[in-house]
Design brief:
The chain has 18 helices and 16 strands. By secondary structure, it is α+β, with helices and mostly antiparallel strands. The strands form three sheets. A six-stranded mixed beta sheet has the order 1-3-4-5-6-2, sandwiched between helices. The chain has a five-stranded antiparallel beta sheet with strand order 8-7-11-10-9, with helices on both faces. It has a five-stranded mixed beta sheet with strand order 13-14-12-15-16, sandwiched between helices. Helix 14 packs across helix 18.
Length: 551
């Protein structure tokens, strides 16, 4: 038995096109004797257990999903041989724990039908949905317009937003039916207040949704295939909106706003075309976008840990230079306000959206309170994350700390760039702890290289420091037990390069008070700051004592 997954056979798609459009990490090509450039006309659920007259069964150009068949099972070869005799383009079997048998691979290489395996953890229903949407994406629609936007990977909503923005000459937001932001175009001009609120909150403000609902705007939008105009007023620029629908189902909407200049004269026509082009992308997002995003994040983390085999699944191009940026949600020092409408997690989500819109090939992954961004560099570009760092710098102080590692020549260098970016964040966190309210919360590795190197050295010294004893240990133990300030006083004196008056001002004490504390530190513990070796040990020990706790 075979069940067609589409309404009818298509024309023009190839197996390679389908594989390029579905989620990375879903299928593995075990063998493709005729290459993957063969036509793929339809997707079929194949029941290997049903009797059939093979003389009357034709599967030319079909992709057969052999549900229930594992690559290591004896029946896999029978399914493959039958499909090959019927002219199938490909057969998909589940990979299983041991993978395909050698005999199965040999049989595939002798035939014409490609053998694909479904990876562990992937479901047949999700695969069917992906291939089905990919087929729609690969075919022209009835009007002759491309059903997808050329050059865009299926589900690349930020890329779609940027492409539509170029067509309409405005700023684009793609939203789901609940007015939540799925993607938005890059910003060439300062956004108006509504666009800023929508992007920052990742959804249209609730009061604005109520306003549009009560005015009847949404009723009109959801019940027409045409573009609906929202005139400019004294608050916001003109907007055009169009619903994206698949049959009777509303998948979302595309909004265009004037972006520092009037919208193009043919903006409405461009939006109508964009709504058709967006159908497979939003269908893709609804079917498996979130699950694929989670899998992609796991792949990015594997890359950052040194697994270069994961590059293709994350959409990373081997041989292309990249830099890693790390942004960390930060509560800020006590008493300093953060952004009330954008707490740490939301700020990171907004930065992730901005990264996706910034440059094709940007890849992001979250890990707790951190966001990792892999930024591709142009030829000779030394600081590809500069614009993203500037974006993070615009976030009100205290909400986020962000650092960028150096550019590395290939994916193998990504762990090093990640480590450098994490060191930058540690430097910035250390500064915030020692001198609240001073300095930038954003930096590149080159800007803090000296402090980052000190952190690396302290990481190596810390285990040894904990196993030895000396004057500085005794002084710090006394401070901990009695609440005294000898360590703080010595640290201020060293930081001020021996300027007693400057150190006293930082401590808000009289210079004579500081001199007394330094003299007592020498008398009680042997911390003689006239001795270079003691000064070095004091500086190391006090830096270790002041290190913030790693989260």
């Amino acid at each position: 038995m075979h069940i067609r997954a589409t309404e009818g056979p298509g024309q023009g798609a190839t197996l390679a096109q389908l594989l390029a459009l579905i989620a990375p990490g879903t299928l593995d090509v075990v063998a493709a004797p005729l290459t993957t450039a063969v036509p793929a006309l339809d997707v079929v659920l194949h029941d290997a257990g049903e009797d059939r007259d093979e003389d009357s069964w034709a599967a030319t150009g079909l992709v057969l999903l052999a549900v229930g068949v594992e690559a290591g099972s004896p029946e896999a070869a029978d399914v493959l041989r039958a499909a090959d005799r019927a002219g199938a383009a490909a057969v998909v079997v589940r990979r299983g724990g041991r993978g395909p048998r050698a005999s199965l691979v040999e049989a595939a290489e002798r035939g014409r039908t490609a053998l694909l395996t479904l990876r562990p953890g992937q479901g047949w229903t999700e695969l069917l949905g992906q291939l089905r949407t990919a087929l729609v994406h690969s075919l022209p629609d009835r009007s002759g317009d491309a059903a997808g936007v050329a050059g865009l990977r299926l589900g690349d909503l930020p890329g779609l937003a940027n492409t539509v923005a170029d067509l309409v000459g405005g700023a684009i937001t793609i939203e789901d039916p609940q007015s939540r932001v799925l993607a938005y175009s890059r910003m060439d001009h300062e956004p108006d207040p509504m666009r800023r609120l929508t992007i920052l909150g990742q959804e249209v403000p609730r009061w604005r949704v109520v306003e549009l609902r009560e005015s009847g705007f949404f009723r009109t939008l959801w019940n027409t295939d045409d573009v609906v105009r929202l005139p400019a007023d004294d608050r916001y620029a003109e907007r055009l909106a169009v619903a994206v629908r698949h049959g009777s189902e509303v998948l979302g909407s595309i909004w265009a706003a004037a972006d520092g200049r009037p919208l193009a004269g043919d903006a409405a026509a461009a939006l109508r075309t964009a709504a058709r082009a967006a159908v497979p992308h939003l269908s893709h997002h609804r079917t498996w976008g979130r699950a694929a995003a989670r899998a992609r994040e796991e792949t990015v983390h594997a890359l950052l840990a040194g697994s270069t085999r994961a590059a293709h699944d994350a959409g990373i191009v081997r041989g292309r230079p990249y830099a890693v940026m790390v942004a960390e949600a930060h509560p800020g020092p006590p008493g300093e306000e953060t952004v009330p409408e954008a707490p740490g997690d939301r700020v990171l989500d907004v930065l992730a959206l901005q990264a996706a819109a910034y440059r094709p090939g940007c890849v992001t992954a979250r890990s707790g309170r951190r966001l990792y961004v892999l930024v591709p560099a142009a030829d000779g570009e030394a600081d590809p994350a500069r614009t993203l760092l500037a974006t993070a710098r615009s976030v009100p102080r205290g909400a986020v700390l962000a650092g960028a590692g150096p550019v590395v020549a290939d994916v193998a260098g990504l762990p090093g760039s990640r480590e450098a970016a994490e060191l930058v964040v540690r430097v910035l966190r250390d500064r915030a702890g020692r001198r609240p309210g001073t300095g930038s919360a954003v930096a590149s590795y080159e800007e803090v290289a000296a402090e980052a190197t000190v952190l690396r050295l302290l990481d190596r010294v810390e285990p040894l420091w904990a196993r030895v004893e000396g004057p500085v240990h005794a002084m710090l133990a006394h401070d901990a037990a009695h609440g005294s300030s000898f360590g703080e006083s010595v640290a201020a004196y060293l930081d001020a390069f021996g300027d007693t008056a400057g150190a006293a001002r930082r401590l808000t004490v009289h210079p004579n008070t500081l001199r007394y504390r330094l003299r007592r530190a020498r008398e009680l513990f042997g911390v003689d700051l006239s001795d270079p070796a003691v000064r070095l040990l004091a500086d190391l020990g006090l830096r270790l004592a002041r290190r913030p706790t790693e989260s």
